[in-house]
């Protein structure tokens, strides 16, 4: 058990050092219908809509579906894969990360 935890931690530290995982914000609360509301680390969050969100251990938590709130104080709406993970994250106010992708697909018309 401890060995697997250590391997996950080593993998996580490696992803952070390689700048693959970027800090997106901190979890705040969970809605009843399975959405997590997070406070973003930076104000420029519109480009993150549609990206996958990961927790501290590198597990996929959900996907960013919307940005709500005022321009100077936005919040991220994350569709959770499992509501129990969201409740745990919100109670601990853990940081959330996203995978930095260099190429974004362009919409075809």
Characterise the protein shown here:
By secondary structure, the chain is of the alpha+beta class. It has one domain (about 1-100): Probable tRNA pseudouridine synthase domain (Thrombin, subunit H, Beta Barrel), CATH 2.40.10.230. It is about 25% helix and about 40% strand. It has two helices and six strands; from the N terminus they run H-E-E-E-E-E-H-E. Strands 1-2-5-4-3-6 form a six-stranded antiparallel beta barrel. Strand 3 (about 50-55) and strand 4 (about 60-70) form a beta hairpin. The radius of gyration is 14 Å and the shape is globular. The protein starts with a helix and ends in a 10-residue tail after the last strand. The mean pLDDT is about 80.
Question: Which labels suit this protein?
Answer:
6 strands, Thrombin, subunit H, 2 helices, alpha+beta, 109 residues
Could you spell the SSE succession in H and E letters? HEEEEEHE
Quick check: average pLDDT? 78
Report the CATH C-level class.
Mainly Beta
Strand content: 35-45%
**CATH level 3 topology:** Thrombin, subunit H
**Strand neighbour order, sheet with most strands:** 1-2-5-4-3-6
**Unreliable sequence segments:** none
Question: Main β-sheet: number of strands, strand sense, barrel status?
Answer: 6 strands, antiparallel, barrel
> Which class best fits the helix and strand makeup?
alpha+beta
State the helicity in percent bands: 10-25%
Task: Tell me the radius of gyration.
Answer: 14 Å
